[in-house]
Design goal:
Length: 166
């Protein structure tokens, strides 16, 4: 159950009583952390063109849940990838020819910061709960080649309106 925040703006700004606090399902929602200090909980998929930082949490049962077959990049900001429960691997694409792909193993309760503009992808070792925080504008996905002999060009596309994954 995702619930939109219904706190009146004038109450937030002046700190007056009367603010309603309503629980919501973090795994079914996207949190938008706006530059003016407000936080908006919305339902998925996340709308494009949102202002400010975005926090997304998900229960990932298969690689498809974390776009395992795709590299992604966030040119507008760094990204935090957190393993809340389970075990995942964060892969960073080589930055220069001849370099190897970096692999960072994340266990439950650990996180890593992906540098701004660095292509990355996530793979699951076991079903996991994953959380990510970034600025979404400009996010792009690129399909990973289908095998070692596939040297054709990868397909690059803007991120879909679905929430970015770890």
């Amino acid at each position: 159950m995702a619930v939109m925040s219904t706190i009146p703006k004038d109450s937030r700004e002046k700190g007056r009583p009367g603010t309603t606090v309503t629980p919501f399902d973090l795994f079914a929602s996207v949190l938008h952390l706006h530059p003016d200090g407000t936080i908006h909980a919305g339902t998925r998929p996340a709308g494009s063109g949102q202002d400010g930082w975005q926090l997304t949490a998900l229960h990932a049962k298969t690689g498809a849940d974390v776009h395992a077959g795709h590299w992604q990049v966030h040119p507008g900001a760094e990204r935090v990838v957190c393993c809340l429960v389970g075990k995942i691997r964060l892969h960073l694409r080589p930055q220069r020819p001849g370099q190897r792909e970096e692999e960072i193993k994340l266990m439950a309760g650990t996180a890593a910061i992906v540098p701004r503009g660095r292509w990355h992808r996530v793979e699951l070792d076991i079903p996991s709960a994953v959380m990510a925080v970034t600025l979404p504008p400009g996010t792009r996905l690129e399909e990973e080649p289908r095998g070692p002999t596939d040297d054709g060009p990868a397909r690059v596309r803007p991120a879909s309106p679905q929430p970015p994954t770890a």
